[in-house]
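Exercise 7. Given the encoded structure of a 205-residue chain, write a plausible sequence.
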């Protein structure tokens, strides 16, 4: 079965609700704040074409309203519904390796002077606080109109931001108080030791 990317997965999910045409799907993606899939309309149309070629969706009807261009509605096929179920189950159950830029930067943080690293972390806390406040306001507004099931993505992202804020604050405090000794030489570990530690994994208590 062909692999389905996140835009394609969103198309399958929307079509599992009812038949829709691409313009309606694009509107719903924006309304439901599926930011990962809210790129250019061309991306969505390409996803629709790929899914149709793969036999996961099919044309349901083509209609014209007044002087507007014709719009083709699509429906999900049994193969598409099976792919949706399988891919969603996989993404939810299996933690995949992700490498955000911040994770990479934290791993290289010792290359900065302690005061510069601490100041950067303090700046990040201020920005995170602003993002969290904005996300909380969004959720409060959306909760009046949408079921919680449609807000789980925002809820999850909000929890991630809160956890990140708490950790960044602790790290900045540890640098400021000296609880984290800032020794750039400490990261110059024997490569063989690093290789062995990765093979052995964390010590079990």
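Solution.
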């Amino acid at each position: 079965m062909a692999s389905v990317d996140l835009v394609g997965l969103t198309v399958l999910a929307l079509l599992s609700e009812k038949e829709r045409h691409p313009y309606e799907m694009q509107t719903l993606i924006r309304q439901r704040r599926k930011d990962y899939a809210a790129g250019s309309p061309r991306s969505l149309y390409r996803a629709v074409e790929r899914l149709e070629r793969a036999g996961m969706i099919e044309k349901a009807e083509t209609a014209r309203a007044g002087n507007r261009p014709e719009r083709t509605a699509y429906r999900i096929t049994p193969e598409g519904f099976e792919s949706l179920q399988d891919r969603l189950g996989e993404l939810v159950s299996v933690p995949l390796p992700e490498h955000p830029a911040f994770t990479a930067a934290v791993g290289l943080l010792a290359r900065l002077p302690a005061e510069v690293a601490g100041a950067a972390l303090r700046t990040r806390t201020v920005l995170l606080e602003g993002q969290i406040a904005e996300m909380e306001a969004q959720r409060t507004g959306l909760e009046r109109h949408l079921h919680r099931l449609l807000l789980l993505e925002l809820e999850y992202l909000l929890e991630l931001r809160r956890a990140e804020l708490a950790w960044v604050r602790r790290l900045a405090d540890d640098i400021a108080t000296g609880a984290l000794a800032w020794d750039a030489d400490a990261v110059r570990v024997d490569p063989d030791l690093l290789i062995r530690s990765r093979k052995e994994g964390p010590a079990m208590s």
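Remark. Residues 122 and 172 are 7 Å apart (CA to CA). Students should compare their own answers with the one above.
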